[in-house]
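Can anyone check this?
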Amino acid sequence: MLVRFFAGSIHRQIALLAVAPVALFAILGIISENLTIKEPESVSQARSVAMRIELVVDMIRSAETADQESTILDAVRRTGIRVEEVSAAELDGPEMEVGLDDFRLEIENNLSPGVNAKLRAETESGHLQPVLVVGIDQRRALAFLPPPALPDSRITDREISDFLATMAMFVPVILLSLYGSRMIASPLQRFSQAARDLDPDKGPERPFEERGPPEIRTLAKSLNDMRSRVRGMIEARTRMLRAISHDLRTPLTRLRLRTERSTEPSLRDALLADIDALTLMIEETLVYLRKDTSKETQLRADLPSLINTACHDFADMGYSVAYHGPDRFAYPCRPHALKRAVANLIDNGTKFARHVNVELRVKPDLAISISVTDDGPGIPAEFHADVLEPFYKLDSARNDRGGFGLGLSIVKDIVESHFGTLTLENATPRGLIAEINLPSPDSIHMLANANAG
């Protein structure tokens, strides 16, 4: 649990650390409230009625005239307590038997000790029944018919007030903690998003916003400076490789001309093969360094024709290459770049196999899959990810006859520029399956808009 907590987002950790103590305090308060002995509402109501009865008795004793007494009794009746004046002799009669939980007995028990009171089923001089008779003086008494007891509710007014007080403290703390955690985590989330979208060759010079608290500004400045240094190193490496590749073309051309004038056929053919291999390496390097696949205009191209053209080019050179798939299917793509990707996969297969199959499959949602299968030695599964990296060659697995190891890297870049994926899988019983998966046309538009945003 703790490992998952500390591995979670900073936003969640700060919010939880701020809210947890308050939540614990509220829970403990609720538990302690439930563990304390609660007083039923009927008891508090009985106490309130008893206090009012005593107040009425005191007011009657203080009244100077009969009119004042009549006015007081009328006022009491309007509050819901029926009352009438009776003889003090009613206090000498038998007391009515009631249960221990009777509301009238509860009222009697809450009267002050000096109050002379008795429960009577009825009085001889009055009309109310049953009543609580309370003495005024030696001659007079008051017979009260209290209102019925209110039922005890599950939630008392005190509990409601305690809950509201807790919420008044709890809710602002939650809101402030969430706001504070968001203020702290938001710049880090922006940095994370900027790092995911970062392209060394494109985008603004300083993609990380240098604003906010001093610590955040320092971090953003350091990331921007690091990005500038990385971009400078990549540009320097690219210029160096491009210059070397261009400079090698001239001596290679002179060497080819001199070799073609050689009078020894076997030596001439061997030298020309080496020159062709060097030329292929240079062209492959220049293609990889240009990274101009994204600059080509996207068109609706006929994929079967495009793939068939690549297959026929290799078949004309004497390789066994076959196409399987529909005769016509229009798909939005960069046709020259996609043809180069298919051609690179076919070329990779012809280097190590006797036969290559190219298959185009159209899925129900119009997404497509282009698989290039050969019958060569295949590639061990643990090296599938490595061979997609630039300048990586696995001579021990497949006896490469030349190249810098950029063919599959170029394919990967082209496929990813089409929002697709390139996967490698060993065939059974032998061979390699290189599969290009491209999204449906509708998905391409959504991904392009999301990428532009």
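Reply from J.R.: I decoded it. The chain has twelve helices and eleven strands.
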